Amino acid sequence: MMKPWTDVVAQLQRSGEAYVLVTVIGTRGSSPRETGSKMVVTTEHSFDTIGGGHLEYKAIAKARELLLKQQDCQHIEEYPLGATLGQCCGGKVSVLFEHFSERGKDVWLFGAGHVAKAMVPLLAELPLRVHWVDSRAEQFPEHIPENVQQCLSDDPVGELSRATAGSYMLVLTHNHQLDYELTEAALKRGDLGFIGVIGSDTKALRFRQRLSHRQFSEADIAKLTCPVGLAQVPGKRPMEVAISIAGQLISLYQAQRPAQQKQQAIDWASLKQELDQPT
Questions:
Q1: 222: which DSSP letter?
Q2: Rounded to whole angstroms, how far apart are CA atoms 25 and 38?
């Protein structure tokens, strides 16, 4: 897939998907590409090129090997371009592999009340990227963890348009009407991975009735989790509720990991066939 590596890296950084940046850092003799040539490898695709042929096939295989380790690292490989790689250049290439692991799921947390304040330090310790939204500057604590992005906005519903597909959404605002508007906007999108709203069973019933009157289908309404949190973790104190919600998110992303790991299986024959095609 011939797409500039710079565009791909920018897109992957926004989405948080794992990737390996492959760079030719040195050449001796004749080689298919010059020093500085780059390509990007993910679990399913490769972008741009370091010269094609068996060299690129080996480089992609090495990159996918690093992706399976699921941790940031750097690695250098030396490739002689002779008979062993089936290339007639006769030179030698040094290749740098930089693995950037998956950054975790995006969580959009709306509301900066007592429960949210108790929950943010918990979420900050998990492999999640938290976007914390409220319209009240005084509600945010002085210290915000590094992997939590504070978003002060007079239009919280509008901020939802910035969420990537598959993001988790938590609605914990001080205003029931705002909670409903956020919920309706999330269901209209239809592509979020989780929609959790704090509240009582009575609030949940009212929300579902309003959504039904707004012509949302039963399947759409079923995507709403209200009250949010694990039923097995009772309690009404802010920390108790925060732990219950954090536990539910942990269950969600842990349940998704096996599927992600299956996607990392490599079809070596198809990969070699693709790379052997003339460019």
A1: T
A2: 9
Element (H, E) at 124: helix 114-124
Pairing of strands 194-197, 168-171: parallel
**Nearest 10 degrees: CA dihedral of 173, 203, 162, 39?**
110
Calculate the CA 97 to chain-centre distance: 21
What does the pLDDT look like over 87-97, one tens digit per residue? 555 678 899 99
Q: Supply 71's token pair.
A: 């941790």
CATH of 105-258, one of 3.40.50.720, 3.90.1150.10, 3.30.420.40, 3.10.25.10: 3.40.50.720
Tokens standing for 99?
Answer: 């693995």
Phi, psi of 232 (to 5 degrees): -75, -10
| Residue 16 confidence (pLDDT) above 80 | no
Cβ neighbours of residue 143 closer than 8 Å, sequence gap 6 or more: none
**What is the pLDDT at residue 279?**
43
